[in-house]
Amino acid sequence: MHLKLLTLYLMFIFCTSCKGQNKTELPKDTIQSENELVNTTYGPNDINEPNSITRAIIQDRKGIIWIASWQGVLRYDGIKFTNMTSEVSSARFFSAVEDSKGNLWFGSIGSGVYRYDGKSFRNFTTKDGLPNNEIVCIYEDKIGNIWFGANGGASRYDGISFRNYMMDGDSIMEDTTGKSVPDFTRPPYEVNSIIEDKTGKFWFGTRGNTFIYDGKAFTTATHNGQPFKNVRTITEDKKGTIWLGGADGLWRYDSSSFANITQDFVGYIYEDKKGNIWTSSQTAQGWMLSRYDESSLSNKEPIVKEIKSDYESNKRMIFGILEDFDGNILFGSLDGMYRYDGNTISDLKK
User: How many Cβ atoms are within 10 Å of 160's Cβ, its own excluded?
Assistant: First the structure.
């Protein structure tokens, strides 16, 4: 039963059909076998190494790397890995963020969210006010509220209580009834990404429509009258440009109009210190780590470099992206964490 649920879950995440004549269809081998994903046998010390699906990677203000993976939350100090949740929770972790107070937040699939204050973990679930225990993304806004993108809606935590916004069909609105969505039902209304732009408006990328929230009402983000659907990631760069990635490719919004950059499926978007935009995307050649040059981002066709390697012939999924303090690009995959140093891609386990 566990294997069936896991396979269905991954199919919901990655096998989204693309529309349009010029779309690149997602390769059939996107989903790895159940044996690869679940039945990996770990050695005595492997619990402390990233050997499983690694969804998110962050670096805290002290320079420590934190990894949200399906084997737990891992801490990497540049020398060794430590599994921080092996005795706390058996949950599969999906998202991570460090807040302005130095607390670390980790979202899980099925067990809610965990906050780590440097000494101990505290678990928040639907019993505390979350709309669901599957936390896909976490974001801190400008005034310190913590937002959680969940299965069925989103939640804002002000340090005391949760304020929930539930999806209903093609709309989203605040819920005051305290209702929650059952875990593992996998409805199509999942909030994948939340950001606050420089104007104070919030963007919500979901499995359904993409929404913009001005603090009072939600409106649907559209282009030529059509809503953006199945957006997996949204970010704002240093210049205030909004980037959206998902089933309909990579899009750029310059505060007045949208422009399509690529039609390949885009899972993650990340801006490095120099202002370059990095994406993980699925092309006809497989999964690619791509870098769009900062000097050309406003062009109709930005200069892009696709990072190709012998990394499993580019067939394995690429998840969260991070530039570390040394300028290396780290990214997660099905079997751990990899590093691109500007020349080669290496497996950090080795």
Answer: 6
Strand 265-271 relative to strand 277-283: parallel, antiparallel, unpaired?
Answer: antiparallel
| Distances 24 to 21, 147, 187, 247 between C-alpha atoms, Å | 9, 33, 25, 10
What superfamily in CATH does domain 52-347 come from? YVTN repeat-like/Quinoprotein amine dehydrogenase (2.130.10.10)
Burial class (CB in 10 A: 0-12, 13-18, 19+), 290: buried
Tokens 């012998």 correspond to 310
**Residue (of 148, 185, 139) closest to 166 by Cα position:** 148
Stretches where the chain sits below pLDDT 50 are: 1-45, 313
Enter the pTM of the model.
0.86
Residue 43 makes CB contacts below 8 A (sequence gap 6+) with none
Domain ranges of the chain: 52-347
Using alpha carbons only, give the angle 174, 179, 183 rounded to the nearest 5 degrees.
115
Q: Quote the pLDDT of residue 34.
A: 27
DSSP assignment of 310-342, as one string? SSGGG-S----EEE-TTSPEEEEETTEEEEE-S
Question: What whole-number distance in Å separates Cα of residue 293 and Cα of residue 298?
Answer: 10
Note the pLDDT of residue 221.
97
pLDDT of 30: 31
Q: 172: buried, middle or exposed (CB in 10 Å: 19+, 13-18, 0-12)?
A: buried
CA-to-CA distance for 140 and 125, rounded, in angstroms?
18
Average pLDDT of every residue of the chain: 86
- What is the gyration radius of the CA atoms in the chain, in angstroms? 19
Specify the DSSP element, H or E, that contains 2.
helix 2-14
Which pair of tokens denotes residue 297?
Answer: 């981002």
- pLDDT of the residue at 295: 96
User: For residue 22, what are the β-bridge partners?
Assistant: none
Sign of dihedral through CA atoms 48, 49, 53, 55? positive
How many other C-beta atoms can be found within 10 angstroms of the C-beta atom of residue 212? 16
